């Protein structure tokens, strides 16, 4: 249940972002389910509320604002553009039964292609300023560094694509990395299937949406993957070391630069991280004490593909993050029908602020 105090705080926060130059936007509570399913696959059903409309088809209660804001901007927004909003979002909380499934979000989104690192710093500082005076810890990360590491692996394009697709699912990512590197054996059922001279000859009746040609193509892809040599041990160790980086920003930069000496695909992404730290410092952020975790943000919504950040109440580890955000350049390309623009944004949970000492 959203309290009156939380609503008042939400409007206050939205006013702060509006004063910083953001235009106020509204988004429908019922969103087309097809768009979100295309983006995230069927996994989104476990986290969202889905309903059926006899005229409009399958709809989804708004799980966040970012997707509809991106769609609105890509349909004809000016550049650069800043937006803010306040309203309810709806998330199923099966893994956290005590947490609210309906709550307020206040957001700030920035679309600007001129200087992405400066835009990252602007959004981070906008949220930090709105939360000033509260006992919060800031955490940062960069999904783009891990994506660069995976994209540079000396393996097949299909294996790189599979790992990139599951970056936001750490357990599945690890399973794939172990199998592709030979640490885990091929599942016995798959081994038996590939051992058949003609797997389709003894296949069961076709059930589901895939036809025989699609199934045959999938089997051939599995055979090609089985013939692929394992990912080199040194590359797996590089991924493991990268994911273990959890230090203040200057030490993290040094650590990642050291990794980049032996793994050149990391270098451009690490340079972006360093430029972002410079942009944050220029805005008054003490990056010498700002935490960086290379694995941070991997369980968030799957559109973040660069800078990620969050603000937490350290004295209340039972609470979800007070605020989160990140860069989502690839999302604008997917929703822009061929057009794209670098974009970054963040959201605040006003309902949590009163629990940690924030005045309504």
UniProtKB/TrEMBL annotation:
GO biological process, alphabetically ordered: histidyl-tRNA aminoacylation
Gene3D superfamilies: Bira Bifunctional Protein, Domain 2
UniProt keyword list: Glycosyltransferase, Transferase
GO molecular function: glycosyltransferase activity; histidine-tRNA ligase activity
Keyword Calcium on entry: no
GO CC terms: cytoplasm
Listed name of the protein: ATP phosphoribosyltransferase regulatory subunit
UniProt source species: Roseivivax halotolerans
């Amino acid at each position: 249940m959203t309290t009156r105090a939380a609503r008042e705080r939400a409007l206050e926060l939205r006013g702060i972002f509006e004063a910083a130059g953001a235009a106020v936007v509204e988004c429908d509570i019922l969103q087309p389910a097809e768009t979100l399913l295309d983006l995230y696959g069927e996994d989104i059903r476990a986290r969202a509320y889905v309903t059926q409309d006899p005229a409009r088809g399958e709809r989804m209660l708004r799980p966040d604002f970012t997707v509809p804001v991106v769609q609105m901007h890509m349909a004809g927004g000016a550049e650069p553009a800043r937006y803010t909003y306040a309203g309810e979002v709806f998330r199923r909380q099966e893994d956290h039964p005590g947490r609210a499934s309906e709550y307020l979000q206040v957001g700030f989104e920035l679309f600007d292609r001129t200087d992405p690192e400066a835009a990252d710093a602007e959004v981070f500082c906008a949220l930090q300023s709105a939360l000033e005076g509260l006992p919060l810890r800031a955490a940062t990360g960069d999904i783009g560094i891990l994506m660069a590491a995976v994209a540079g692996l000396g393996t097949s394009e299909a294996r790189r694509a599979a790992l990139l697709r599951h970056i936001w699912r750490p357990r599945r990512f690890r399973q794939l990395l172990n199998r592709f590197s030979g640490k885990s054996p091929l599942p016995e059922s798959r081994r038996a299937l590939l051992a058949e001279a003609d797997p389709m000859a003894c296949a069961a009746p076709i059930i589901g949406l895939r036809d025989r040609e699609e199934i045959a193509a999938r089997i051939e892809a599995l055979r090609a993957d089985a013939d692929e040599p394992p990912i080199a041990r040194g590359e797996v160790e590089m991924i493991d070391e990268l994911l273990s980086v959890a230090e203040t920003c200057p030490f993290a930069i040094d650590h990642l630069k050291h990794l980049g000496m032996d793994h050149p695909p990391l270098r451009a992404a690490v340079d972006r991280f360093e430029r972002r730290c410079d942009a944050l410092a220029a805005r008054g952020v003490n990056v010498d004490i700002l935490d960086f975790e290379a694995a941070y943000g991997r369980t968030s919504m799957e559109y973040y593909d660069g800078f990620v950040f969050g603000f937490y109440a350290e004295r209340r580890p039972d609470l979800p993050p007070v605020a989160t955000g990140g860069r989502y350049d690839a999302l604008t390309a997917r929703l822009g029908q061929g057009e794209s623009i670098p974009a970054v944004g963040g959201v605040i949970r006003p309902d949590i602020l009163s629990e940690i000492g924030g005045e309504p």
